[in-house]
Amino acid sequence: MFEIGGKYENRNGKYEVIEIDGDRMTVKYSDGSESNLKMGIQERIWLNIVAEEEAATSRSKKKKTTTSKVNHFIKSIEAIAEALLTPADITTAVTPSSPKKAPEIASGDRFIYYSIAEKGFFAVATITGDPKKAKASDYADLNFDEKKIHIYPIDIDASATSYQKMIYADAFELESQPDYREKLTEGEMYLKINEDDFELLAEALTEFIEDDEDGAAADSDIAEEDDSLLLDDDEIVV
User: Fold this and answer.
1) Which among 56, 89, 73 is positioned nearest to 121, based on CA atoms?
2) Which of 4, 5, 129, 159 is the most exposed place for a label (fewest CB within 10 A)?
3) Which superfamily is assigned to 70-209 in CATH?
């Protein structure tokens, strides 16, 4: 497969074939150095590099295709009680939407939810389907103006378990919405942000929540170990 004058690459860099002799070839790297290499080994290396580059290109194209169709929003609600920071209660609080206020929303769009009263981001979710109509009176505490509202099905990717696990607005800047703190002044508001801002904020919230869960698990393990040690001591005393 190698030809004199052909340009290829291995893990040491790019090179040009300047001579072929049996199953070996002499190559010249871009820095001017030369090396005599076995073609069978270099063929496998070259094919692996080509495959890696093709896979990277494919992932890049797929990402561009996917992200071009996905919208990213911050949605505000008036408030959420700390006792309601559970997936089921969060879903009830954030999925109702006003047809008059909501932008065009499609399955796959992603949301970060923000509480006005607490001034904090508390959940990350993905829209999973088309909305269903519901009576606004069933959600009277959310103060909808219209009689009919939309309920969007969602998957919650991450959610705070307490006010302490929220990401507070004062701690985060957004390039695509630098004045978002001034804009998010009432419930049922939607701010479109770019994917980079969304991913940074979502990652920060998710890591903050997971750190708390990991710490709780570690504390539980330590407690179990302590109980075991106490039991052993009791046995020794007896």
Assistant:
1) 73
2) 5
3) ph1033 like domains (3.10.590.10)
